[in-house]
Write a structure and sequence with these properties.
By secondary structure, this protein is mainly α. It has one domain. It is built from eight helices and no strands. It has helices at 2-28, 33-42, 44-47, 53-62, 67-86, 96-121, 135-145, 147-170. Helix 1 (2-28) runs parallel beside helix 5.
Length: 171
């Protein structure tokens, strides 16, 4: 279980940097859903063909091993990814719009992680959801890999709230 928590922490530290970068690109596109969607596909080398694609390959290779091996390899991989991206300065202006997107993304992550942790802890009981398989890691790696789409989704969800708050301030 300790490997799961350690791998989860390294994963979260890396994703803080990655989502900060994704949110900064959303800010550059002025929170426009269509423009950000176009940007994702126009910059496919950065969004799809990146070093994180190695995590998916690593996961496929390690699926034949014990869950501890997958946990340790995830810790090593995301620690290296974090250290590579840590020095890059990303400017993100904090305002109400970005805070609403961050809140939606955090709620998604909290929901996934609480679900996984509860299921992981219930491994010794009869109410197992995933039978303690590498399914946790598959979902988490995909949520990280598709971060630009998740930011796009969070932006789409937050748009009506922004319009409501903007209208409420005028009235």
């Amino acid at each position: 279980m300790i490997f799961f928590y350690i791998s989860l922490s390294t994963y979260i530290f890396f994703n803080i940097i990655k989502y900060k970068k994704s949110l900064s690109y959303l800010q550059q596109n002025k929170y426009k859903v269509k423009d950000y969607g176009k940007w994702i596909f126009q910059n496919y080398k950065e969004t799809f063909i990146n070093k994180e694609l190695l995590a998916i390959i690593l996961l496929i290779i390690t699926l034949n091993f014990d869950l501890k091996v997958i946990g340790v390899s995830t810790v090593i991989f995301y620690t290296i990814m974090f250290l590579l991206d840590y020095k890059k300065k990303i400017k993100l202006k904090i305002n109400k719009q970005i805070l609403s997107r961050i809140l939606i993304i955090i709620m998604l992550f909290i929901g996934l992680n609480v679900w996984f942790i509860l299921d992981y802890m219930s491994y010794h009981y009869a109410d197992i959801i995933f039978d303690n398989t590498p399914f946790y890691y598959i979902i988490l790696i995909l949520v990280s890999y598709f971060s630009y789409f998740i930011v796009w989704l969070a932006n789409t969800i937050a748009r009506p709230f922004d319009k409501f708050l903007k209208h409420k301030r005028r009235g």
